[in-house]
Amino acid sequence: AGGMPVHRDSDRGDASISIASPSASARARKDVAPRRRTTPRATPTTRRPTTTTRALTIKPFKRAPAVPEEFASDARAMLRDAIAAVQEKRQTRESHETLYRAVENLCVHKRGDDAFEDFRAGGDARSEKVLVELEKKKIGDSMVFLRTFDEVWGEYCAQALTLRSIFLYLDRARANGGGKASTLWDVSLRLFHEHLENSAKSVKGKVVRGLLDLIERERMGEKIDRALAKRVLRALSALGVYGEAFDTVFIEASQEFYRKEGNEYGAQTDVSDYLKHCERRLEEEAERCTNYLDASTARGLMRVCEQGLIEAHIGDILDKGFVDLMRQHRIDDLKRLHSLLARMDGLDRLSAAFVTYLKQQGTAIVKDDANDKEMVERLLAMKSAVDEVLNKSFGRSAADGSNDIFINGVKESFESFINCRQNVPAELIAKYIDSKLKSGNKGASEEELETTLDKALTLFRYIVGKDVFEGFYKKELAKRLLHAKSASIDAEKSMISKLKAECGSQFTQHLEGMFKDIDLSREIMQSFRQTFDDEALTKGIEMNVNVITQGCWPSYPVIDVNIPEQLAVLQEKFQDFYLGKHSGRQLTWQNSQGHCVLKARFGSGMKELSVSLFQCVVLMLFNDAKKLSYEDIASKSGLEEKELKRALQSLACAKVRILNKEPKSRDVNAGDVFEVNAALNERLFRIKVNSIQIKETTEENKQTMERVFQDRQQQVDAAIVRVMKTRKSLTHALLISELMAQLKFPTKASDLKKRIESLIEREYIERDREDAQKYNYLA
Question: Whole-prediction pTM value?
Fold first, then answer.
């Protein structure tokens, strides 16, 4: 019955074999009722034909093997018993392999639906039972209830996995069958979920309340069982109720928690401690999300935490504590504040507070006229502190460019307050640089000096009226060069290079011309000494003359004085020497800028006196007289009253008194009598008494400002002519607008109007005959 039938082809005299495969159902039935099969055999023919062979044909069974009627019911009973044993924690009667084969046979014989129904019914009954029992338990402690639920869930999952391993063939068959059939694990979860929603509704609420209580305890500082929380939350996620049952409720509870905490903690603590508390809370919530909360909760949780602790209190934080943080230079707290506000797009408000603070502080410094001498130092200290805050707290630097709100805020602030007091900051910055470049500035290395100059240059960049700075810087530079007070020519030239890079070559052309004059004067004096070497040195006088170009240097008033004969002879010789080489030129002696070194004998010995030319003239008079009255000195020196009083005051009323004055007072008046202080006892060999000459008077300051104003008038006139020459005809409003755009210093429309009227009078432009608000250019 199990052999392969043989078909003989009598016509061809040979045999051929064809094998008919049994059907899949026949193969399945052989496992249920196997029959003995014999090996097919081909019988050779008695004749000896040619080289061909006989064909052998294999045919299927004429009748399919029968499956015992009790097979399905026995297999299902065995599986139901196994399900009950697993759920009751008993050992199954049959081995898991036998149970697996039973499931496989049911599936092969198309009884898989029956097996699935048994699995579903067992899971349904079990999930209902454990949840109803859990609901009936009177457990008041939320922690105990969570642990009980965790145990129930753990056992249910372990049993579901064990049963799935037994029904694995069914699970795979459902998966391979296509469609959207659920896996057995999904079925187990769905059954548990259905009863959680229907049969035991209170269980889910208790679990959620227990979780909320557990997390709140942790927020209040208690140490909790995070592993338990993680397992329970994973259970809710696996059951598909995490979002609607826990996440929404948890976010709302967290929002209320941080709202209350923000209000209470913010009112009780200072800003520094509050910022630290906010940072710690955010770190805790981030850690909570990592350890046991679902990833989907992180964004919403962090958002409500930020809203409750920071966003709702940004105004209070900035109003109550930002100024103190800046004043106390709390770098770490400012960095913390920047980091927190950056989380919620609050940097615009921080930048606004930052700019407001800078403007207030800077304006207070600039307008404090009682401390003008310290203004630049205070502004530099402020700028240094601001740069440190930008770099270390806000993570900004100048390399970030002009698109950063904090870099722009600093620029806007400094430009605002540094120009709120017109011309004064420009003047003081020029004098500050002068103080650093003078030879008396000891203790600073070249690198430190360069750093200081660079810092001062940052303030210079914010000045609108840079021509004021130029005027005062030129005046101070002239004093340093003419009186040999410069600490380093290299540093001087380095500063000129910085200004040139900042403002262009036109800004520094006069300053560079001053250095050229000094270098040329040095060469002229070398030639002069070679020519008059013997004759000059025999008199013991060495003269040095600086020939300066009037257009490059500040203008000085010509002050007449009766030069001592020894000096007058040398002046005349130099003038003849210079004009002999440069015909057509004219020399004007600027006596106010001259200085001398005199040798004088006092009771304590020989001393060298470093004095101005005017002081020298006064002192030389005492070679011919022991005492001289103020009137005698005035007539013999030929000095005007103002300069004479300055010279006498520095000689007789200073700390080191070369002359004695009767009566003694701090001022010089008519009728005073002067004599040499023979009892001078100064330990230094060289005594400097010409410092009053170098100090700037109020009148000199006013003259410098007047020269700047005159230069500005000339620039305005040139700009008006340039614009009108190009445009030929313009209305008053358009001309003013053009001038405002071209001029590099602050000016008023009223001042511009005055210059326009001046040019009309000088017939450079004229008013239009038909329109009084229109101007025409006159060629």
Answer: 0.73
